[in-house]
């Protein structure tokens, strides 16, 4: 009996919780700032702009900010809130809701049926990514919403602007595809360059190890260095040229932005000394220590067996491969001058729009 009562109680709590989740705010203002991210002046300016636009065109753009979603997707919350308030005019379905969840760091543009030909999913996504999110990352919430609503109003007022914005969105999609293709293509050369550099660097370390244990003579050592460094130059070209291209394409960062580094090349000489001498010598000394070899020098005689085994890759790595081992109140936060006569006109949404996070 006790278990039955306990299960009944839990079921009641679950049903109550689900019913509570289905309650969505009824908006009585065109801008409802429940999260308190706007000050009184910003709230008034934004409300007046959207109210004037509604009176001019009958298109209804509403803004709702909340603190947190509470285990619900922003898409579902926006859709349900849109439906609960019937944003837009009946028969026109010309409503639009911008929903911001501050603590979840998510934003959604929910578009009514009648506005979907103008504010398409691609356009809504572009507005979020390029206008809202950059401002929100700087915690400039008003600026993000103000610029976004300005862009939406411009598109709805001017069909040509919508066409241009749509073409830009389509071009952006094509541009992303081209970037991905070029990046993958350049990555092939980058991988080849990285492989050649690795093989050459291993040969360089072996050269220093060989001279320190008497396997490479002082007479032969310059040739061993050349054999290691020559293919490395080709590897560096194959590595850095594609890398510069990838950075320029994907991050719009170009080499001319680093011209200040050419004013003093001492840093470059120091870097080359560390990479080509200090680090290889330290690795060679560590290898000598782990193998238990003794230090000695050879003036003329070299160990051909050691050279063939450890240095031959330096001659061939550039040209051939080798084998390898394997809820709060929704009316709070407003100035007394805000309009309180806002209500939906019977519009509906089919779930069109876009979401984003910052």
UniProtKB/TrEMBL annotation:
Amino acid composition bias (Low complexity), ranges on this chain: 316-342
Region (Disordered): 316-358
Entry keyword annotation includes Transmembrane helix: yes
UniProt feature, compositional bias: Gly residues: 343-358
InterPro entries named in the record: TPM_dom
N-terminal signal peptide: 1-20
Transmembrane parts of this sequence: 176-198, 219-247, 267-289
TPM domain segment(s): 31-154
Keyword tags: Membrane, Signal, Transmembrane, Transmembrane helix
Protein name per the record: TPM domain-containing protein
Species per Swiss-Prot/TrEMBL record: Maribacter polysiphoniae
